[in-house]
Amino acid sequence: IQISDNWPGYSLDLFTYPQHYYGDLEYVLIPHGIIVDRTERLAKDIMQDIGDNDIVVLCVLKGGYKFCADLVEHIKNLSRNSERFISMKVDFVRLKSYHNDQSMQDMQIMGGDDLSKLTGKDIVGTGRTMKVLLNNIEKYKPKMIKVASLLVKRTSQPDGYRPDYYGFEIPDLFVVGYALDYNEHFRDLNHICVINDHGKTKYRV
Ligand code: IMP
Ligand code: MG
């Protein structure tokens, strides 16, 4: 799903969201329900592509945890309601590369022991994070690696990385919610929203 640069979004007044974020957000870019519905379809596409292979889901924390949990849930439900039972293992790595809304050069990877077939990620911004992670996973020579990311940003970055599956292509905006953070805030917001200047200043470090 492409969200165009001139998409005005939805007014925050049309939805509910935590009171402690009143005044910090510009608008709702993607409501929670649409995120979940789109994720269900990604799960179906993934199921179709992996055939009879078992999968190891590698969730990229922290921002990917909501997407990963919902994706796994949908894969489980689809698998239960079909003839094919897919065995799934889940593992986690933690990456950190952002300071305020700026991508940092150095990146830390923490955790993860069983790196294999599938990764669940929150957002591909510049694509830098994903490339570093893939370089690390490829050392383990998995049979297949597929990357699923909820969002892909249209950045001007020339080395733009494209995941195998993604939910939405969005404008080059800093977004929060559905586990995506701004300095650890806004993860507890259900919808994906655009933060305003007041919010940026309030939570700047
Ligand atoms: P990249 O290296 O620029 O692709 O950044 C990827 C990582 O940065 C993601 O996994 C996110 O955790 C974080 N990130 C990038 N863009 C955003 C955003 O708009 N909001 C919140 N986090 C973001
Ligand atoms: Mg972050």
UniProtKB/TrEMBL annotation:
Gene3D superfamilies: 3.40.50.2020. The keyword Nucleotide-binding applies. GO terms for cellular component: cytosol. It is an enzyme of class 2 (transferase). It catalyses: IMP + diphosphate = hypoxanthine + 5-phospho-alpha-D-ribose 1-diphosphate. Its cofactor is Mg(2+). Residues 34-182 form the Phosphoribosyltransferase domain. Its EC number is 2.4.2.8. Keywords: Cytoplasm, Glycosyltransferase, Magnesium, Metal-binding, Nucleotide-binding, Purine salvage, Transferase. It is found in: Cytoplasm. GO terms for biological process: IMP salvage; purine ribonucleoside salvage. Its main location: cytoplasm. Belongs to the purine/pyrimidine phosphoribosyltransferase family. PANTHER family: HYPOXANTHINE-GUANINE PHOSPHORIBOSYLTRANSFERASE, PHOSPHORIBOSYLTRANSFERASE DOMAIN-CONTAINING PROTEIN 1. This is Hypoxanthine phosphoribosyltransferase. It comes from Pteruthius melanotis.
